[in-house]
Design brief:
About 70% of the residues lie in helices and about 0% in strands. It is an all-alpha fold. The longest helix has 29 residues, at about 55-80.
Length: about 300
């Protein structure tokens, strides 16, 4: 979707073109971004039409509107820097299958977010930097939506997430790369998993004080994470943790599984705290990690008594 105006939009009339902004690689990068947005606009129209639910179709249309805005902004910048209007081209075909389309969109949005940050770093104009950094944040948010839809029940057989090795703390530990939204999703999944595990133990072995007390603490952990989801406008994943819970053989086995779960949970938060993350998230992750250390000691004491 191209702008109809024959004039360079006034917003970029006063862009100061430094040596970096005359960089051929920068202009090539902006052209690549324009082509990518042009392709996304086309693909997301098809994806929204194939969506099985009305809310998914509506959200994908909203994502498409973001991409149209990006396309227009990038085209204005390109014209301001080169004196020419871009000639956008489709760079990839959109998968006909809805699930494959979501998977492709998820991967593309992740890569595109990093690409836009690279462009922002290369540009000398603060306006150009701001446009690409905002676009990068949008792309990251889009990726989370696509991941959320891949997690929905109709895709429970999807090998990307629906197995024990790619869920909760284990998923976070096994992930090659992690974004902040992904880290939050894995953390919430792991707290959901702890709740389901303790519910199973209490239902099968009665009111064991240690598990009852720690279960209440885990509810507070969930609330703390949900506040971060709301603050950063990240979609909250559904709680499908019960499918990963099995009943322990006995109370000793229950304590053993509690130890293993807390060790994994601590390792997950240790990994998160090694990254550059928002300070409010660092505070929450630190508090939850420290609480898990206390839970681990409680489970170890209970295991030693058996």
């Amino acid at each position: 979707m191209q702008t109809n105006s024959n004039e360079v939009p006034s917003f970029y009339d006063d862009v100061e073109i430094g040596s970096g902004d005359r960089d051929t690689k920068l202009i090539q990068g902006i052209k690549k971004a324009i082509d990518g947005e042009f392709s996304a606009i086309s693909c997301y129209k098809q994806l929204s039409e194939n969506a099985p639910r009305a809310d998914e179709a509506r959200q994908i249309r909203e994502i498409r509107q973001d991409e149209i805005r990006h396309f227009q902004d990038f085209s204005q910048i390109y014209t301001s820097l080169t004196g020419q209007k871009p000639s956008p081209q489709l760079t990839e075909e959109c998968p006909a299958d809805y699930r494959k389309g979501l998977e492709t969109a998820f991967v593309d949005e992740q890569k595109t977010s990093d690409f836009y940050l690279d462009i922002a770093d290369r540009a000398k104009s603060s306006k150009v930097q701001d446009v690409f950094r905002r676009a990068a944040a949008d792309e990251q948010n889009h990726a989370v939506w696509f991941l959320y839809y891949l997690n929905r029940p109709q895709f429970h057989n999807n090998p990307i997430r629906q197995n024990a090795e790619n869920y909760g703390a284990i998923g976070a530990i096994n992930a090659v790369e992690l974004t902040f939204p992904q880290a939050l999703i894995y953390a919430l999944q792991d707290e959901y998993l702890a709740q389901s595990r303790y519910n199973n133990i209490l239902n099968n072995f009665g009111e064991i004080r240690t598990f009852k007390r720690i279960k209440q603490a885990e509810l507070r952990h969930i609330d703390a994470l949900l506040n971060l989801f709301e603050r950063y406008q990240i979609p909250v994943p559904e709680d499908d943790s019960e499918q990963f819970v099995s009943t322990p053989e006995n109370v000793k086995d229950a304590y053993r599984k509690g130890v293993v779960g807390e060790v994994d949970n601590i390792a997950m938060y240790d990994r998160y705290l090694s990254y550059q993350i928002p300070e409010d998230a660092r505070m929450v992750f630190t508090q939850l990690r420290n609480a898990s250390v206390n839970h681990l000691e409680a489970f170890r004491r209970g295991l030693a008594r058996r």
